[in-house]
Amino acid sequence: MASINFLADFQEVISQELSTLGYPPEPEELFDSVLMRYLNFQRRIPPVIIWTARQSKELSAKSFSKSVNLGLKRFIEKAESGQSLKPHLSTQSDNPDYRDLMFYDWGVFHFHLGTNPHSKRTGFVERTDDLLFAIADLSKAEMYLIDIHPHRGGFTNQDLLRIIENNWPEILEPYTLQGVIGLTYNASDNDINSLRKSGLNTILQTPNGRFLTSMGGGITATGTSIRNRREADRVIISIRQLETWFIQQKAFVEDYFKSKHDKDWADLTFKVKSFELPLKVEEIKTGEVLEIPT
What we know:
Blueprint: H1 6-21, H2 31-43, E1 52-55, H3 57-61, H4 66-80, H5 101-106, E2 109-112, E3 130-137, E4 142-150, H6 151-154, H7 159-167, H8 169-172, H9 189-197, E5 204-205, E6 211-212, H10 226-248, H11 250-261, E7 270-274, E8 279-283, E9 289-292
Parallel strand pairs: 1-4
Antiparallel strand pairs: 2-3, 3-4, 5-6, 7-8, 8-9
């Protein structure tokens, strides 16, 4: 039997990325733990694409200081010209163990609106008390700019949900419960903070009578992202299926290496070098690289 372990190969790839960030996995850390940490880092950073920025009516109608206005203007320019928005995120955005409970619960990003570089953290802008709260829809390349609020209280401010509902109700449709006529308990902003820290998810009622589940997927009992958990399970299944498919190509692969290198199937050792398409699988002993387009 040829030596094949695509899950171990993927763990090596993402472990290297985490190490580059300065957060290497522990020597005996399980693959599932490494994958969850990797996804937690990856999903909290908007991809570098050309976004269409859409401001809510409430945000457009507000008056801000000159510095906040300039910060918002530059942020939009960056988004719409395909520049990285990472400098505006929390300085913890590189930390795969950082728990962004608002993002897990509501799927809402928060951005700092500084216009100068951070004095201590290279790659970030200066911190601002006023934060821009936004939702990113990757499928449409649209960035919905909800509102700007002070840091204190902004992360649990249910007025953000009201603004989303008034401007883009379609965002809430997938998370709207049908057939619910009322709640015995509707959490306050302070309650939401406590519930998130306890790993508890709650249904919220909007001013227009909509009953919402967590737009961000929710929070596990251990304080991690439910959506990350589901994505991790999907990734594991996909890699196992890919490995199974590759093994099913045994006859073709063995014929190729037998004719070119006089190697039998049992003599071969395969390692995935890149999981980006096309997938690159190297046979270690011969150095041959096979490309799998899909």
